[in-house]
Amino acid sequence: MTTKNIYSSFSELIKHLELVHHIEGGYYRQNYRADNTISTHRGIRPISTSIYYCLPSHDVSVWHKLVDVEERIHFHYGDSVTIYTIENRQVKTTLLDDPDGAPFIVNANTWFAMKPSGQKTSVNFSLMSCICEPGFDYSDLVIADKQLLSEVDSEHHTLVASLIKTAKFVYIRYKNYQGKIANRRILPKKLWFGATRWHSEKQYLLDALDMDKNQQRSFAMKDILAWSDQPLENGDL
After folding, report:
1. Are the C-beta atoms of residues 185 and 211 closer than 8 Å to each other?
2. Residues spanned by the domain of 84
3. Same domain, 50 and 158
4. Which of 5, 32, 173, 185 yields a CA-CA distance of 20 to 30 A from 219?
């Protein structure tokens, strides 16, 4: 990736790269998904995927891990990034700040978190690329909760706890524009009134991350037939 010093602010970068919220924190957009696939014990995956990933200065990438997936993190531009990993009950810290340097490799099944270091106060974000092999799938992503504290020695508890944020999923039964009904697991983002390409009449819409489709979507509130904080069975209404 060639990065010019054209991003004077985080909002300018978000607009230019068309980034959206990521469940772990920060903002992203997938820029590569291999056509070739590989069969894993968790299902079919593309052999590789890549995203732009950006952390604004006020945000963090919370503790998470990818099941059986290796991730390579390349630094591009902005404030340097502090990467935390948990190994043998210890928290290890790495500073990523060289666009020409080697990527940081997160081994499969390793808990890690990130945040801007705050060293470059004139730049209010950190821009990276993240490459996953096999390719990223939300079903391989695990977000840590407070149980993670039991996996590190006590001297690390304060730091580890500061980077934990449990994602709250909502389970819905939804009727799409074709009249098809299906259960969905979503992470709500914003409720608003308006119209989209798929919802031409102005109405209340819910922007959410569709965890089953791996997409940011707008759901028509009137077409949500059931809500729950637990997975819905086929007969639930």
Report:
1. yes
2. 10-162
3. yes
4. 32
